[in-house]
Write a structure and sequence with these properties.
30% of the residues lie in helices and 20% in strands. By secondary structure, the chain is an alpha/beta fold. The strands form three sheets. It has a five-stranded mixed β-sheet. The chain has a five-stranded antiparallel β-sheet with strand order 6-9-7-8-12, sandwiched between helices. A four-stranded parallel β-sheet has the order 2-1-3-4, with helices on one face.
Length: 359
Amino acid sequence: MDRLSVRVCGPSAAGVRMSERRVGCWLSDKKRRRMNLDAFIRFCADHGVEVVKIDLTQPLGPQGPFDIILHKLSDVIVEAEHDSQSQQLLDNFQSYVSAHPDTVLLDPLPAMTKLLDRFVSCRIMSQLNSSLRDWRICSPPCLEVHSGSDLSSIEQAVIRQGLTFPLICKTRVAHGSYSHEMCLLFSAASLADIHPPCVLQSFVNHGAVLYKVFVVGDKHCCVERPSIKNFPSGPCDRKTIFFNSQKVSKPESNSNLTSVDEHMVDPPSPSSDAVAALVKELRAQLGMALFGVDVIVNIGTHALTVIDINIFPGYEGMPQFFSSLLSHIQSVLDKHAAAGSHTTGGSSEETVGVCHPRS
């Protein structure tokens, strides 16, 4: 099975030219390297687009004007809660945006901020159980754990909310290296291993296959990745398993957690139409254009199961990412110019493409 066999779907960006349009860009150093920002800047320049790296430590006015700002301010937003310097950088950015209402943000700060909180993202995912029921799309039961002072209350809440062991425990904050540190809990006694605030989510057996759905405006694709192997349902005396989700789901992952029984039947591929419906629904709910969705296929029911939503992901394995991103920027600015009023990158309505790794 080819874990990186993908194709991107949606309108082609061939021949895109955006003369006299200026794109500001702020990404963390790590994100710049992962995205290969310098290569994207050269790609845009070849299509007549100037992309400027924004320096938040300097006044933004002289660095502009910008028609659109591409950003992932997650680091700054999270750090601003406990660091005055980061708060000042965020204030400066927001002041510039307020003073330049015609500058489009890709993506809107309020939408991005919501997804930094897994309590909020779990509520968004739970709404899919009703809104996409006809597509057999769902999300596992989740429990928000605010405090760990009373384990018996947590155990009762687990039962009341319909969660079943094994459980997967995730940090509340959905950004930063620590946010990838998770654990699998196999009994009520193992609840003593959690560190609130955190989210508990029923673990769903999915044949050790995860699908990363990468969304760029009206285009999306599925990239298949290794994932956690199946475990027997129900409580048992197995010790808590601690792991880093990034290491488990990397294409080159060679973890004992992802080892697959050779006699296990592969889970079915996700339905292309169902994935398209999911992307369309989440674009409308989130008001965003650059995000990723982690989905699995329930090995028992074959339901498409949504387990996480990510802000401006790495897009590793997505073909034509640069052209897709530039095409979306052009589309947003064209609609913004036609409307003659302020819009956001995630608010424009476009036809969602369909993409599938095994088709």
